[in-house]
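queue> pop job 88
queue> type: inverse folding (structure -> sequence)
queue> payload:
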């Protein structure tokens, strides 16, 4: 008999709060973490691009300690990882974590170092030009666990992934599978994204993904509204403690959430566009429902990908209609990206963390700035104000560049 997987705790770093207490308060109010991009852009040494808004972390409120301070390179990614690890990982009687999974973009090192490397290329390659790639962060996290007295994790159970915007769901899916198969009892999983320089913004702007609206920054991200023109780039991360039923029963943990099931597909279409027939996106949700052994009618709320791009929001609406048919208009749903921007690789993790708090509070976060209804996006997106409802099971969707599609169903215990 397979084992069940539960999320027993999480840590958060986001544009609307770096503690669970602040994050919990701010997902339900009208606060937006989107700010003017002026102060960030003026420090860059390349031509300015016409974006007005970013959703940035308050780095002054990130936790750290002597272990992380001892690391020789002080990068934003390391500071975010330190904060998340310190918040989440505490003493465990058995001193054992079986797996680490982290979603992170390994190309997110300061791009100016790549330029410097190529300008001065020699056949003897010095890896120091890459400040922090994927495995570096996981090595630091693994060392931190040993520092706290945990057993060393087997190398094959330390995993990095880059499935673009679905990475957070992919990480939880792997952990759930390993626990179901009784190979793991406890795992730390999540994803991190930081805005370190302008180069990634230039790339996103070049494909027309970013909002350039000349409005107040807090109004720039407006998923499903007729005046949307692109997403606001955000940053942050979340880590989850995922545990087996055996461990949960032994600990009598409060605020438990069961991972019922997941589904993942790929469009095999274009790098930047989703399929107009939404076949694979809908299939990911259907696989998730089947894996979860639940019916569409059992979903109480959907936390949408909702990027605020013209195409994504329309296609996601079509996807929900395709799966839920006549039920679609009766299911409340919303996009947290209206508050935190699009944190790309970290987006699903941060939004799952928010969904857990919605389950806990029986309260659904609003979609801010939905002021001009789009006739093509005609579902219940909980516009502008949070809403109460008894919540038992939520669905989280995510869709990424390259045609990545994912969904996860989570139940409150």
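queue> result:
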């Amino acid at each position: 008999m397979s084992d069940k997987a539960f999320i027993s705790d999480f840590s958060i770093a986001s544009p609307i709060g770096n503690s669970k207490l602040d994050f919990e308060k701010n997902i339900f109010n009208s606060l937006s973490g989107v700010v003017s991009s002026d102060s960030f852009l003026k420090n860059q040494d390349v031509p300015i691009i016409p974006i007005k808004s970013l959703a940035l972390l308050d780095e002054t409120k990130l936790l750290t300690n002597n272990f992380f301070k001892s690391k020789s390179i002080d990068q934003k990614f390391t500071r975010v990882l330190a904060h998340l690890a310190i918040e989440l990982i505490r003493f465990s009687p058995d001193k054992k974590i079986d797996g680490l999974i982290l979603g992170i973009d390994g190309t997110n090192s300061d791009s100016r170092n790549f330029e410097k490397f190529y300008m001065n290329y020699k056949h003897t390659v010095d890896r120091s030009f890459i400040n922090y790639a994927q495995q570096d962060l996981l090595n630091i996290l693994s060392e931190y666990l040993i520092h706290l007295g945990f057993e060393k994790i087997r190398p094959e159970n330390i995993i990095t992934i880059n499935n673009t915007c679905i990475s957070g769901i992919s990480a939880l899916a792997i952990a759930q599978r390993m626990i179901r198969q009784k190979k793991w009892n406890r795992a730390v999983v999540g994803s991190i994204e930081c805005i370190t320089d302008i180069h990634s913004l230039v790339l996103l702007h070049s494909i027309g993904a970013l909002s350039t609206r000349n409005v107040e920054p807090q109004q720039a991200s407006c998923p499903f509204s007729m005046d949307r023109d692109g997403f606001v780039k955000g940053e942050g991360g979340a880590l989850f403690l995922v545990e087996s039923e055996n461990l949960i029963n032994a600990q009598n943990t409060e605020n438990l959430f069961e991972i019922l099931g997941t589904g993942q597909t790929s469009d095999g279409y274009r790098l930047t566009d989703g399929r107009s027939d939404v076949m694979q996106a809908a299939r990911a949700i259907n696989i998730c429902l089947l894996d979860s052994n639940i019916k569409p009618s059992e979903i109480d709320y959907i936390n949408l990908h909702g990027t605020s791009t013209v195409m994504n929001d329309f296609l996601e609406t079509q996807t929900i209609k395709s799966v839920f048919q006549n039920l679609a208009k009766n299911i409340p749903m919303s996009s947290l990206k209206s508050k935190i921007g699009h944190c790309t690789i970290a987006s699903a993790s941060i939004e799952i963390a928010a969904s857990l708090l919605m389950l806990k509070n029986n309260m659904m976060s609003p979609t801010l700035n939905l002021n001009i209804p789009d006739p093509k996006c005609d579902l219940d997106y909980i516009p502008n104000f949070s809403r109460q409802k008894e919540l038992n099971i939520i669905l989280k969707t995510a869709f990424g560049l390259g045609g990545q599609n994912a969904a996860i169903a989570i139940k409150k215990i």
